[in-house]
Each structure stands twice: as structure tokens, then as C-alpha cells.
């Protein structure tokens, strides 16, 4: 069942490239349907939300109202089992503390000619957080999306969560309460994204929409991008584990399967220089698959997308393979982990050493679990405080510093044929030019 | 010709909202055409580039070759007039110095329980810079896009620029030489974006594409987003000037028209509490329009999208109007500029005081002139060093710190029904769980 690729085999590069390039998510052709749903919400506001929610979620919002009251969130929090409450509290505090270190500094300075430059960071005015309904409705995701926004200083945080047939995950409402969210609506799908982007009678629009969702939600986010900001469109989850001969095959197998259980399209890859570890891990995977609750999903993910890459020299070969895969999660389960770190450029998050299972990072490590998938770690970063702020640049000239910059400005404006640009400097320095 | 809106009039809010919401760019329906061009480049590589370039640019790339040699760039630099050379040099140095201050710091620390956290910033492996051909081909844009990439440490910078009928702006090639770009191809349009994203026989793919372009280029960037990173899709340019009675109407008129000359869809807005200044500025606009080289374009922009907003109390009313407009450029031509600054949240760049015409920021101020348009300053920032880097988060636990985080991790994993996640912690802490 396990796919083994050996770097010494002549077709290794070709088969590795196929692994790297392989598209795992199914393309969904929902563009036109989403377009007309967004148009309906723009035209008919709450009425359209009520209709779509009736049709897709079998819920009568005209009866329940759109909003979930803060009291309901608080009641959900109060109703949680004490150990879950404590765990969420630990997660909240660790995420909050870690993200505080990401608050960027403003800058203002005068340069050699007396020109003042700088920049100023300000929080976004408002953010909409999409939370999926049903089984993929995770309280940890509420914290991971909401806490950095709170740390950034976003004054208005709005959550939307569909409640199909009235069903809602109390842990999600409790997490919203814990994160300080007070404005929540029981809507989902493309219609919820449209409401957040354009507003309705009940819902004021936001300036950015974040959070995971199905193909309809992803397409709706794509379509409203520009009207509002959006976060990355998340693909299926991934882990790459780099392990030496000393790594524990049972631990590694558990880590590979923790990723695989998310989704049949998830991908787990082991890179090792130990044939014995490779064999033992593959066996441990099979043994654990047989007993794990989400074994059917994990088995399909492992069979379709999993792989063991066997290399001759871990320190020399692993970093290049990792950089090509650019995985969302990277585990370095090897003694030489720290030495390998500088050679690794493309990864969403790195979990260092034998005692750092990726799952801790999903919940209580403190760093964010919203990370770039599908090789996007080559050009983008995990969610953080900066995603909830924007930078305004500042320039201030005096009569004297303007005089010193006038000639090159006017020369360049003239070279670009923009005489109006030239003139705006000339009138200040030469009188009428 | 000038549109005056007075904040004391009963329909002010309604007319102001129309100004804020008005779409200025024309929608272009080029989706399908762009999709098939991208597919052609993916299938047939260089051959497709040669065909499209023959058709759209009337150039035979099979004869000239795709690349513009570094020697050609150097020759262009050597051939520039001395004052233009000096101006570009000044611009380069000031942009470089300012952007150096944006290099982000790495972080690594151990927290109270001995867990190590942190993040590391690394430059992107490669970036493609799109430069339009013809009249909108600006050397300043080459510097503004390339210098932050160089400062970030991006090792491979690729430029594409169409050369219709062989025509190319020597100042653009010279700016590329100055910025240290050595890999340049004479291609443009959607085909150039496809080549950068997917690669051809001659062109290796990049991981991010930046730079302005027409509707075809913008749509191509949208379609390849995800395969590669992209910068913002730029809309028409904008300026808002906030001026008090002491501002000079001739200077203000020149600033408003410097924006308007870019494009008939550009927007220039004056906000003032001085009826006399409002009148005088409108008159000065008409006078300058009559004599400026790009007067036809500027006149249409001013007539269709320009406005003078007359308020009763500048300090109280202007910041709210500015925040709603979220302009790309904001000039604070008033004595109380510094005092007004904290109340302004949404602006791409702020030019402070009477002696800071926006045009200086376009060229030699040092800050970046690639800024969010069409109200995107509500949720995004101007181009900077961070756009050419990505952040990888780090987590490292010891046996002891893992033990302390095991319980909350396992509780949350269980609450989310992810027993594989739970297991990856359990095997490390409880033996077989």
C-alpha cells in the first residue's frame, strides 16, 4: 500500500515531480451559481439570505432571526465540560501571547537631507470570520482566526456559521465567546460571504473575510476579492516528516496519519535515509490505520497521496526535496534538525525535534494553524497579526528638502511624459515654472 | 465643470456615497480569451509565445530571440542623458535606503514552560516583474517593483516587457540595469504572465508575479493566482487633498491634475473648509488644464470623477470622509496636518504639509509608489519588502514541555473528533495510549 521512492533510482526525479505537481483538490465548477447568489444578496439583502438558508440549511431565519445573541455564546461557554473549557483557555492564552510578539512597529525618521519618512500600521476596521457548519466546525479554528485580529486591534469582529437544521457545535459558540466575538449570524455558504462583503439590512459589511470553507465559500471569496480583502484559499492539508534512523516509527506513523485523517485529499510524506525506519513506519501506518476511528479517510489519503522518500544522505538531499514540496507542515524528527534549518526555505511551519508532533501546533503551541497549502509556502505565510493590519506610508518635506529633490523629480516626470507631475513640483519651487 | 458638494446640504451623504461607491474602471470581459492563451502557453511553450507575440506585438521572436541580453540593458543605461541617469540613481538610492528599514526581524524564544517558539523570514526564490510596453512603460515602476525584491534578498528577478514592432523604452531597460536585473524577455500580455507562472523551454517559472498591466494582464494574474503569488490588481489612480484656507490654490490644482493626467478614470478630490480656496482651486484647475500637455485626459478625469468637498469643520469632518474614500494618495496640505494624522486610518500613503507634492513620492521620496487603489487601503498596504518574503513559524518542544501541553491538546483533538491527532501526542507521552 505504501509508495516508496528511492533517490538512487533513475526515475526518482520524474516520480518526485509527479508527487510535487499532483493536484489533490477537485476542481468545482460553481462559478456561475455563486455569481448569481452574490447578485441576489446584493439586490434583496436579508430576504435572499432567508431564502438561501431555507433551501440549503433547512432553517427558517425569519423565525429564529439572523443573529445568535451574545447570551447564547456565553451559555455555550458555561455549558462546556471543565476539561474542554480549560483546554480552550490554555489555547487562547498561548495563541494570544505568541501573536502579541507579531505586533509591528511604526517608523518615522528624518534622512540626511531632512526629508521625513516613515510608516504607520493601523488595524482593519472590521473582519468577517467564516466558520463552516457540521463536522468541519472546529473551535480551534475560531481561536486561530479571531485571536490575531483581536491582538491587531480590529474593533469589529463578525462571525458567520451555518446551522443546518438548527444544528450548531456548542464548542464553536463557546470559542467565539472566549475570543470576545459578540456579533454572530447563523448563515453560511456563498450567501454569507456576499452578506459580509456587501452588507444587508441586518449585517453591516466588513472590509476583510477570513476562514475556511467548502468550494462554494472559496469561490465566493474569490469573487468578492477586491471589494473586500480575503485570506488565502486553503487547499487540502499536508505534512512532510524528515526523520533519521533514531526516530520512532510508531510516533512518525501517528503523525503521518494525523494529517491523513483530515481529508482523503490530504498528503503525508516521510523522507528518511534509513531503509529500516521506512519499512517500520510503513508497517506502523498499516497497524494504526486498522484501529483508528477515521481510518477509512486516512487509508485513502495515504494510499492515494502518501509516500516514503528514501534518500542516501539526509542532510544533503532532504532540504531540496522539502523546498520543492513547500509543505504546509514540516516535522524535523532528526538529531540534526537545527543544523538542517538554514537550508530549508519553503515551509508554512516547522516542528523541530522528536517531541514536537504537529498536532500540538494545531491547538495549543501558540503559533497559528492557518498555514499556506498546495505549495503556497513558496510565496506566502501563515495567518498572523499583519493580516489584520495595513501599513500607510508617510512622507513630509520642508521647503528645503523639497528643493533638494525637485530636480530629479522633474527630470523623471519629464522622461515619463507626465508634465502635470513635473508642474506640481515646479509651482512650489520656481514660482510659475 | 467642477463638482462641488457641501457637507451642510441635506443630500450630501447620499452624493458622497455615490462618489465613494462609483466604479471607475471599465469591466473587461476577457476571461475566456485569457484562459485559452494560458492553456496554449502551458501546452506549447515558446512556440505559443512566438505566435502570440507575432499576432499582438507584430514582432518575430524566432528571429530576435526571447531574451534581451544584459549587454543591451547596460548599453541603454550608458546611452541615457546624464541628468536622467543622475535622477534614476537618486531614486534608486533613496528607495533602497528606505526599504532597508522594512527588513523584518526573526524571532526565537523559550516561553514559561520551556516550549521554544519563533518565526523566520526568508526571501522568495524568484519573482517575475511585468512591465507594460508603449506609453505606460515607466522606469520609475521598474525601480519601485525591483528594489524591494533586491532588498528582500530574492536571488532571481525576471522582467518581461512587450516590445510592439520592436519598440522599447530605453529608460526602462536602463532602470532594469540599475536595479540589477539580468534576465529580461521581450514578451507581454497574458502570454507573458502564463510563461512566468508555468515556464516554457526558455523561461523557468517564478513563484510570484508583480507589476502593473492592462485588463488582459490583470485577468491572467487572477487566473494564475494560487499557482504563483501575485501583487494587488491595480485600479485607476487617486488623490485626496485636505487643505485649509492657507493652502495655495495653484499648488493644489497642480496636485489634483498630476493625478488626473494619468488616466481618464483617475480621481482627484479636494476637501476644504474654505469656500474661497475651493473657488480659487477650481479656477486654477481650469487655467492649468488649458495649457497642460495631457490636458484632454486630465480634463475628462476631473469632469467625470473629480470633486470639491466643502465642509464646515476640517479637523472634525475630513478624517471620516478620508477613511470612507480610503484613497491611494492623501495630501494633508494644512497647518494642522500632524494633529489630524491619528484620526486617519485608511490611506495608502500620506503626504504631509504644504511642501510635499505627491509626485515626489512617485519618484524619489524613497517610499513605494505601488499603493492600494479603489478603496483597498481599507484592508491592504503598499508594496514593500514583506511582499517579497514569507514567514515560517517554528515550534520545538522537549519531552517535558510536550508533557505539559499533552492534556489540552488531546482534549481539543477529541472534542473535534480527530483521534489521530490525539494519538500522535498519546504515543509520545503514554506509550501506546
Topology of helices and strands:
Two copies of one chain form a homodimer.
Chain A: E1 4-6, H1 12-21, H2 31-44, H3 46-57, H4 61-64, E2 67-68, H5 70-79, H6 82-100, E3 107-110, E4 116-123, E5 126-130, H7 139-152, E6 156-160, H8 170-178, E7 183-185, H9 189-198, E8 208-210, H10 215-224, E9 229-230, E10 238-243, H11 249-260, E11 267-272, H12 275-291, H13 295-305, E12 307-310, H14 314-325, E13 329-333, H15 337-340, E14 349-352, H16 358-363, E15 389-396, H17 399-415, H18 419-429
Parallel strand pairs in A: 1-12, 5-6, 5-8, 6-7, 8-9, 10-11, 10-13, 11-12, 13-14
Antiparallel strand pairs in A: 2-7, 3-4, 4-15
Helix pairs in contact in A: 2-3, 2-9, 2-10, 5-8, 6-7, 7-8, 9-10, 11-12, 11-13, 12-13, 17-18
What does this structure look like?
The structure is a homodimer of 433-residue chains. Chain A has helices spanning 12-21, 31-44, 46-57, 61-64, 70-79, 82-100, 139-152, 170-178, 189-198, 215-224, 249-260, 275-291, 295-305, 314-325, 337-340, 358-363, 399-415, 419-429; strands at 4-6, 67-68, 107-110, 116-123, 126-130, 156-160, 183-185, 208-210, 229-230, 238-243, 267-272, 307-310, 329-333, 349-352, 389-396. Chain A is of the alpha/beta class and 433 residues long. Chain A has three domains: 31-106 and 122-230, 3-Layer(aba) Sandwich (Rossmann fold), CATH 3.40.50.1980; 235-379, Nitrogenase molybdenum iron protein domain (Rossmann fold, 3-Layer(aba) Sandwich); 397-429, no CATH class. In chain A, the strands form three sheets. Chain A has a six-stranded parallel β-sheet, with helices on both faces. In chain A, a hairpin with a 5-residue loop joins strand 3 (107-110) and strand 4. In chain A, helix 5 crosses helix 8 (170-178) and helix 6 packs parallel to helix 7. Chain A is globular. The mean pLDDT of chain A is 95. At the A-B interface, helix 6, strand 4, helix 11, strand 14 and helix 16 of A face helix 6, strand 4, helix 11, strand 14 and helix 16 of B. Chains A, B: NAD(+) binds at residues 130, 191, 214. Chains A, B: Pfam families: Histidinol_dh (PF00815). Chains A, B: Pathway: Amino-acid biosynthesis; L-histidine biosynthesis; L-histidine from 5-phospho-alpha-D-ribose 1-diphosphate: step 9/9.
Amino acid at each position: 500500500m505504501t509508495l516508496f521512492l528511492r533517490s538512487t533510482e533513475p526515475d526518482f526525479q520524474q516520480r518526485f515531480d509527479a508527487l510535487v505537481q499532483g493536484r489533490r483538490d477537485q476542481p468545482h465548477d460553481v462559478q456561475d451559481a455563486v455569481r448569481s447568489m452574490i447578485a441576489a444578496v446584493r439586490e434583496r439583502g436579508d430576504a435572499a439570505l432567508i431564502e438561501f438558508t431555507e433551501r440549503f440549511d433547512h432553517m427558517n431565519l425569519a423565525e429564529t432571526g439572523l443573529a445568535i445573541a451574545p447570551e447564547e455564546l456565553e451559555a455555550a461557554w458555561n455549558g462546556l465540560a471543565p476539561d474542554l473549557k480549560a483546554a480552550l483557555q490554555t489555547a487562547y492564552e498561548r495563541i494570544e501571547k505568541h501573536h502579541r510578539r507579531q505586533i509591528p512597529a511604526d517608523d518615522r525618521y528624518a534622512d540626511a537631507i531632512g526629508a521625513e519618512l516613515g510608516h504607520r500600521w493601523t488595524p482593519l476596521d472590521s473582519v468577517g470570520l467564516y466558520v463552516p457548519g457540521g463536522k468541519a466546525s472546529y473551535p480551534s479554528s475560531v481561536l486561530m482566526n479571531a485571536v490575531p485580529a483581536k491582538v491587531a486591534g480590529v474593533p469589529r469582529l463578525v462571525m458567520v456559521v451555518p446551522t443546518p437544521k438548527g444544528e450548531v457545535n456548542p464548542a464553536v459558540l463557546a470559542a467565539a465567546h472566549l475570543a470576545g466575538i459578540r456579533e454572530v449570524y447563523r448563515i453560511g455558504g456563498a450567501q454569507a460571504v456576499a452578506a459580509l462583503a456587501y452588507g444587508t439590512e441586518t449585517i453591516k459589511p466588513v472590509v476583510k473575510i477570513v476562514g475556511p470553507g467548502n468550494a462554494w465559500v472559496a469561490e465566493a471569496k474569490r469573487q468578492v476579492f477586491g471589494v473586500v480583502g480575503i485570506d488565502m484559499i486553503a487547499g487540502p492539508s499536508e505534512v512532510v516528516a524528515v526523520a533519521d534512523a533514531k526516530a520512532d516509527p510508531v510516533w512518525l506513523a501517528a503523525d503521518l496519519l494525523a494529517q491523513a485523517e483530515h481529508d482523503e485529499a490530504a498528503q503525508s510524506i516521510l523522507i528518511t535515509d534509513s531503509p529500516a525506519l521506512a519499512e517500520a513506519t510503513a508497517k506502523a501506518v498499516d497497524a494504526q490505520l486498522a484501529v483508528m476511528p477515521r481510518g477509512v479517510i486516512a487509508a485513502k489519503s495515504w494510499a492515494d497521496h502518501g509516500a516514503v522518500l528514501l534518500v542516501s544522505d539526509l542532510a544533503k538531499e532532504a532540504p531540496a526535496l522539502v523546498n520543492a514540496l513547500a509543505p504546509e507542515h514540516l516535522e524535523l524528527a532528526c538529531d540534526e534538525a537545527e543544523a538542517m534549518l538554514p537550508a530549508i526555505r519553503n515551509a508554512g511551519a516547522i516542528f523541530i525535534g522528536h517531541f514536537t508532533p504537529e498536532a500540538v501546533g494545531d491547538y495549543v503551541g501558540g503559533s497559528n494553524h492557518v498555514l499556506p497549502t498546495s505549495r503556497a509556502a513558496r510565496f506566502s505565510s501563515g495567518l498572523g497579526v499583519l493580516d489584520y493590519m495595513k501599513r500607510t506610508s508617510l512622507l513630509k518635506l520642508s521647503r528645503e528638502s523639497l528643493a533638494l529633490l525637485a530636480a530629479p523629480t522633474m527630470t523623471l516626470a519629464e522622461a515619463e511624459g507626465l508634465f502635470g507631475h513635473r508642474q506640481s513640483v515646479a509651482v512650489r519651487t520656481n514660482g510659475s515654472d
